[in-house]
Amino acid sequence: MNGYFQIVGTKEATFVKLFPPLDGGETIDVNELTDYLHRQGLEEIDTALLYAVLKNFHSEQVVKVGKPLGYLVRESMQIKCSEDKMTVSARFYPPQEGGERMNVQEIILDLQAKGIRGRLELAGMEQWVKNPEYCTDILLVRGTPPVQGKDARIEYSFRTKLDMSPKRNPDGSVDFHNLNTICHCKKGDVLATLIREEKGEPGYDVYGEKIKPRDVKTKKLKFGNNIALSEDETTITSLIDGHVSLVTDKVFVSDVYELENVGPSTGNIDAEGSVLVNGNVQTGYSIKAKGNVVVNGVVEGALVEAGGDIVLTRGMNGMGKGVLKAGGSIISKFFENSSIYSGSYVEADSMLHSNVVAQTYIMVDGRKGFIVGGSVHATDKISCKTLGSPMGTDTFIEVGIDPEQKQRYQELRKEIMSTEKNIRQIQPIILNLSQKVKAGAALTKEQVQYLKTLMETNAKLTKYLEECEEEYDRMDEQITGVDNACVMVKEDAYAGAKITVRDVSLVLKDTRSHCRFVYERGEVKETSY
After folding, report:
1. Which one, 164, 287, 320, 408, has the greatest CB density within 10 A?
2. 117 close to 207: Cβ distance less than 8 angstroms
3. How does pLDDT run across 436-488, given as a tens digit for each residue?
4. Residues in Cβ contact with 491 at an 8 Å cutoff, skipping those fewer than 6 apart
5. Bridge partners of 334?
6. Do the beta carbons of residue 217 and residue 194 sit within 8 Å?
7. Minimal CA–CA distance to 271: which of 302, 304, 311, 222?
8. pLDDT per residue over 84-119, tens digit each?
9. What's the alpha-carbon Rg for the chain, to the nearest Å?
10. What is the rounded end-to-end Cα distance, in angstroms, of the chain?
11. DSSP character for 274?
């Protein structure tokens, strides 16, 4: 029980009786006490005396606080509303001996007089009247919280993510032929079901003000050709036998666009679904598909872009101009003189003089398992058998920072420097012309228009600079690096390889074997594999 106080009066003076807390309750707050005494009309209070008594009292104390009041102090309460206006509580103060007590009806009338309209805690009030506790927060009124609705959602009836990892053969080689690249469907198959949103119900605070539930998110089924939408627009079904894929949030069904080769006889390929090339993709040609791309031959100096995954069962010799870009994973026998960009992971048997970027990890641990030359970047992990070569070939490896985030960070830095330079060139001209105007010089129409144009340009550049700096500052705080990022070398890492983990680099001066490189206390550390 909290400590509390009670007015005690005599014909000669008014006193306050102080009751200590029991069983770990809160002690009397001197500010609460003095506020209460002031409300009773007692102005000449020795606050220092009260504070001294309260500081060390452990038993009931009586302190003189003023002249006689001339009336009996009745039981009273102080109402307090929570910041969110969802609860009202009160602290009650005891009557003077012989003074009137409050009843439930009086409490309710006091609340109504203050405009409080919430749900009354009658049981709590009645319990308090029977067994009062003073200087203690007693809950009197609750608001009615809103009932939150449910967002719409879509349940897909097919595998939206395919397991593209190649199988390992007993001899250590990688099987790039039997890959799970296509999700088949039959005519009439239900592909997706829309579960519509459910709107919430408003609530009310203790003053009767309406509280709106949060807005629920609506959705609708998005799909391409060869798909039927039900009358109530809640299900989609396939109209053909084919394959189904989910790209971003749109469902595609199509027969696989199958070709023998991509070259002069086909021209560039631009497909809505997936593409299967049984042969090769020749230099100078391109494949762009919203689904997956599978090439059973070799890709030369070509461009292959896929919204989903790219699988090359033989490999790619890009001749310095071949590019692969995938929203999902990229799997290939080998990469040579190529540029690779994956929104997921990359797996290959070998990488030679290539620029490879993966959002998650890169695995090069097939039978050959080497990374020689070029630059290889991944957010989480890079694993290979051999890194670099005995000839000391420059090989750059980086993990621990999202490659796209880092690229944007560097682009912002360049944009900020360029914009600042442009502003520095414009502002002296604006200042010069403005000073002429202040000095009373008359400007020609061309000069006035020129000044106006420069000022508009300066304003736009300044705003753009502020936006860039804000984004740069946000990224500067976020681009701290990924915990547990590592580079793993199962056999040899040769001198000349440069390993960067997060923002710290290590250039190997000699050959290391069976090693793992991690970020530790501001350095790149080598640990055993």
Report:
1. 287
2. yes
3. 888 888 888 888 888 889 899 999 999 998 888 888 777 766 565 667 889 99
4. 369, 385, 386, 513, 514
5. 350
6. no
7. 304
8. 999 999 999 999 988 999 999 999 999 999 999 889
9. 38
10. 62
11. -
